[in-house]
Amino acid sequence: MSRIAYVNGRYVPQREASVNVEDRGYQFGDGIYEVVHLYDGRFIDEDRHLDRLERSLKAIRLPMPLTRSALSHVLKEVARRNRVTEGLLYMQVTRGVAHRDHPFPAEPVPPALVVTVKRIKPYPTSIANWGGNAITMPDLRWKHRDIKSINLLPNILARQAAKEQGAVEAILFEEDTKVVTEGAATSFWIVDEQGAIRTRALSHAILPGCTRGALMAELQQEGIAFDERAFTLDELKRAREAFITSATSFVKPILKIDGAPVGDGTPGPVTTRLFEIFARHVKGGAKNAA
Fold first, then answer.
1. 3-state SS, residue 39
2. 3-state percent breakdown (helix, strand, coil) of the chain, nearest 5
3. For residue range 162-191, what is the model confidence (pLDDT) as tens digits?
4. Residue 148 catalytic?
5. 19: burial class by Cβ within 10 Å (0-12, 13-18, 19+)?
6. Which among 76, 121, 148, 283 is annotated as catalytic?
């Protein structure tokens, strides 16, 4: 079956989908995107993703392409037409089509919206074979990392460097302070020497991860303390455990960083418990939506 994409008001075979060469997303990276995990026919944390989409669009002075209810309908329809129940849905909004000029178009043009979906393997049932390694790299991105911009070249280069070294993620840090920001495409956490669960507080320096926020809400319900407090590379090296979170990573233990084992090099007890808590969040939500 041919994959179906939504492109500016039309559902079309993905192999035939196209955008105008003067789309500002193509020429300037002038746009915002979101990626949502689809589990058992339900979008996980859909409201969090749509909230973040709206915040990011507002930050770059770009209106929503559709009403929220209409956009939600499009997302579900793309999944339905592709018969995908386990997958990742990608949506991108750009400032639309206009003659190439750096300032916003003199005459307002409609935002451009593209939505696609692809199948992925189901949520892992065990953490045993879910972990991966990471490397560290200086954070070369722009100063508004809280906006989910489609300008991802530094992230791409960091992820490629990780891949070439057999790692699943690049952990980024500020060159002057050696303070960790986040992963190239994930939120990053540690369990420090004292056993505290830590991740950097929200600011312009990091993206407000939806999986990060959902996990924090689950931890609060469980009465599990966590600390939104920055840490340095030196603290990272001494950490008992480390893990990443995202719509594609869920809760993924990091077993080695720059070739050195984290803890004993296996998924730690805290990360294992958080993996189980988040799996319950994902699977429980799907049951509630049934």
1. strand
2. 30, 30, 40
3. 999 999 999 999 999 999 999 999 999 999
4. yes
5. middle
6. 148
